[in-house]
Task: inverse folding
């Protein structure tokens, strides 16, 4: 236990050892060994008690120096060697020692740095106190729950402080975590999109999150005291909530229900509520999760209205399609569409043009009401309304084929005056189009409340208006069709042709007109008989059946001519087959006996004329050959080179014309000749005549062109003159040369070019003013075929002629 104290314990005395303390405490008592032993045993027991408790226990003098410490404070806080080391030292002594031992770690010992000086507080106030003291000890956080009180002597004087502390680090950590969890929980609840409330089973609101306040438009800072669920629930919904509350209270089950509530402004909302029984503030309660389903309810209501409207339009279309009476169908349609749109009045205005001015007017035509408003069908103010006086926005929308809707108070003065007299608060007008033209419009009036029409309603009602327009168009079409059918029947009766309706198997379904003299089947047996009974030849019957099948498959017109013995004698017929439907064709049969017989006579006459024309062309060609031969004989008796040359040129011209006639009588056509073949032979004959075929290279560039005889003769003479001039004048004797001829059709005009690479025409010769017969002849013939000629002497001689293909033929 240590040594006895040498002096009494005073506030100013620093106790040096344990013996001094023991001596001090023994003063005033007899020096009795037994009493001393008791005292020592008692002190030993107190020491053991203090050292064995987990809490820290200490005592300090007025200078805040320890005069007693137990094991817990020495080990856990001061890091002292034992309980005796702390005596006579302060807290800061041990704190500074720990910091000096670990200068590299600023957080090794921070305990008490930011805490209140609790010793000073107790000494000044002379009252006990409870303090939170915390900081790092040996690098780990320590939180102490500290109790301190004044330390008084037997006289009641304060000689220091006494204290104890409990390590509550773990508890504080748990408390901190719990606080953070509670904060997180409250944050989550307050930030939930859904409303959360807690009710007692009398319906009072015990708790509400932010979303719950916002749901009923109440400031979240408003106290909940006094709020009851009946302040917000409406009618049947309040009864439902009370029933569900009872079920939750009886632990039967939670509830899920839809309720109507109102906010503080009276705005009605739909909520979906989910309730569960919980314990709250020491008593059972109902935790209710509320979700605003007003948009969903509105969407559901809108969907029901859409379906109802679509069903109304479907019934209206059925009526318009199947009713034989158009006006009655439209009247019934107005009732269907008016009921489906939940309006007070539906009507149709019909357009017409004022004859005297040409202005477009519109008049009330048909109407339906729901019985809550006055009918306007006989309102004279709604007849002959000029469009030009109506709302400009209405005119714009109708021009763009769009619906027009407006509140009555927003209309222009003229239109507002019309609708105000009828008690209309809002209206919708949808244009009715017939063949894409404004026929009129269908209107919808609300007279009990204002209404803003939704886009889907406008779209569906536009479809309804189009259906009415189609019905009007169909009625006009059917009326015109009936009139056309009546006219067609009259025309058919006036047509001499027979008409048969024949099935794909060949059975006659109907026929008109009734002309038994031209039918090989008795009149009473025609309908229902097969065309195989008509007496057709096997080949004709087979061909007709094929045509019927082809017509049905390809929908093309098929025609056949055939001979048939009928009561009127042996006759020729032309039958045309047209598809009527998938199973039948219409056969139009014409008696062509007269045409066939006339054709045979014409054919015989043409054959005679053909023979005559061939004979004429043959004789013309022979006569020209005789003329050419006579010229050839004359050449033999002439000595004058000039005369011989003239005769040869004339002989070439005659040959060019004779070749045309030769081509014609040898061809199948007497009007057209292949000009390429003709030129090939013509040019070859010219070069043979002038003995140039061996050293003059010539080329013909043209397509297979056929031209008339009237164009071939002058064109042949032109080319003959040009090639002859090249043969005579362009090349020196025995000199090699080249002649190019081309003829093309470009943009309905012929382009003819004849060119050589010879010496060219002398520069002193003026085109059109020369005395040369050949050039005069070329010029005259070019004019004769309505052509234009161009001469180029830059590289030899080149003629270019442009002329129309049929100009000469069309000349008067």
Result:
């Amino acid at each position: 236990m240590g040594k006895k104290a040498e002096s009494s314990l005073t506030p100013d005395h620093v106790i040096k050892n344990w013996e001094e303390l023991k001596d001090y405490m023994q003063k005033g008592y007899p020096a009795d060994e037994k009493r001393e032993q008791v005292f020592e045993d008692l002190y030993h027991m107190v020491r053991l008690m203090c050292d064995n408790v987990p809490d820290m226990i200490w005592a300090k003098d007025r200078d805040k120096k320890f005069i007693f410490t137990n094991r817990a404070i020495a080990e856990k806080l001061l890091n002292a060697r034992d309980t005796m080391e702390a005596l006579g030292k302060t807290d800061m002594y041990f704190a500074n020692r720990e910091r000096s031992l670990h200068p590299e770690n600023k957080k090794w010992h921070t305990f008490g740095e930011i805490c209140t000086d609790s010793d000073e507080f107790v000494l000044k106030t002379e009252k006990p106190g409870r303090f939170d003291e915390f900081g790092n000890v040996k690098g780990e956080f320590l939180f102490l729950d500290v109790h301190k009180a004044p330390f008084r002597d037997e006289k009641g004087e304060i000689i220091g402080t006494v204290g104890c502390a409990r390590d509550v680090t773990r508890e504080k950590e748990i408390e901190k975590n719990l606080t953070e969890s509670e904060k997180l929980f409250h944050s989550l609840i307050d930030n939930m999109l859904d409303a959360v409330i807690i009710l007692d089973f009398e319906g009072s609101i015990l708790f509400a999150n932010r979303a719950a306040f916002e749901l009923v438009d109440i400031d979240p800072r408003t106290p909940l005291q006094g709020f009851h669920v009946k302040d917000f629930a409406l009618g049947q919904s309040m009864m439902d909530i009370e029933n569900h509350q009872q079920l939750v209270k009886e632990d039967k089950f939670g509830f899920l229900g839809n309720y109507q509530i109102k906010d503080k402004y009276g705005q009605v909302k739909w909520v979906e509520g989910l309730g569960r029984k919980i314990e709250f503030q020491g008593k059972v309660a109902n935790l209710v999760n509320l979700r605003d389903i007003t948009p969903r309810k509105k969407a559901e209501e809108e969907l029901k209205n859409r379906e109802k409207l679509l069903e109304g339009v479907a019934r209206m279309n059925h009526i318009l399609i199947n009713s034989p009476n158009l006006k009655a169908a439209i009247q019934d349609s107005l009732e269907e569409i008016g009921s489906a749109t939940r309006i007070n009045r539906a009507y149709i205005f019909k357009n017409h043009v004022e004859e005297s001015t040409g202005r477009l007017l519109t008049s009330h035509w048909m109407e339906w009401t729901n019985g809550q408003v006055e009918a306007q069908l006989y309102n004279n103010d709604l007849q002959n309304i000029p469009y030009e006086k109506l709302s400009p926005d209405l005119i714009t929308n109708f021009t763009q084929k769009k619906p027009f809707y407006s509140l009555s108070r927003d209309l222009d003065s003229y239109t507002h005056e019309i609708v105000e007299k009828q008690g209309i608060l809002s209206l919708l007008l949808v244009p009715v189009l017939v063949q894409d033209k404004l026929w009129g419009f269908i209107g919808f009036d609300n007279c009990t409340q204002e209404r803003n029409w939704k886009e889907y309603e406008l779209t569906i009602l536009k479809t309804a208006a189009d259906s009415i327009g189609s019905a009007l168009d169909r009625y006009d079409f059917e009326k015109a069709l009936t009139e056309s059918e009546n006219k067609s029947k009259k025309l058919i009766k006036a047509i001499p042709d027979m008409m048969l309706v024949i099935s794909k198997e060949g059975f006659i379904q109907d026929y008109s007109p009734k002309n038994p003299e031209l039918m090989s089947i008795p009149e009473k047996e025609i309908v229902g008989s097969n065309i195989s009974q008509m007496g057709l030849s096997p080949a004709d019957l087979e061909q007709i059946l094929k045509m019927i099948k082809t017509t049905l498959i390809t929908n093309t017109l098929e025609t056949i001519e055939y001979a048939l013995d009928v009561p009127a004698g042996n006759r020729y017929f032309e039958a045309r087959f047209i598809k009527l439907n998938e199973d039948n064709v219409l056969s139009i049969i014409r008696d062509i006996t007269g045409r066939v017989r006339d054709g045979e006579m014409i054919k015989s006459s043409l054959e005679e004329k053909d023979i005559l024309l061939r004979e004429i062309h043959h004789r013309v060609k022979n006569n020209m050959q005789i003329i050419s031969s006579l010229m050839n004989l004359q050449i033999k008796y002439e000595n004058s080179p000039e005369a011989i040359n003239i005769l040869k040129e004339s002989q070439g011209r005659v040959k060019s014309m004779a070749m045309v006639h030769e081509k014609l009588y040898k061809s199948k056509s007497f009007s057209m000749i292949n000009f390429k073949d003709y030129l090939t032979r013509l040019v070859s004959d010219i070069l043979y005549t002038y003995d140039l075929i061996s050293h003059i290279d010539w080329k013909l560039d043209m397509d297979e062109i056929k031209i008339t005889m009237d164009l071939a003769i002058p064109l042949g003479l032109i080319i003959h003159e040009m090639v002859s001039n090249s043969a005579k004048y362009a090349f020196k004797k025995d000199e090699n040369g080249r002649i190019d001829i081309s003829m093309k059709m470009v943009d309905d005009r012929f382009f003819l070019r004849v060119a050589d690479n010879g010496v060219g025409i002398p520069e002193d010769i003026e085109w059109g003013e020369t005395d040369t017969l050949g050039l005069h002849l070329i010029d005259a013939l070019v004019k004769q075929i309505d052509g234009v000629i161009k001469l180029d002497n830059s590289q030899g001689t080149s003629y270019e002629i442009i002329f129309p293909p049929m100009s000469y033929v069309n000349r008067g």
Q: What stands out?
A: The longest strand covers residues 140-152. Confidence is low (pLDDT under 50) at residues 1-21, 807-812. Residues 362 and 385 are 5 Å apart (CA to CA).
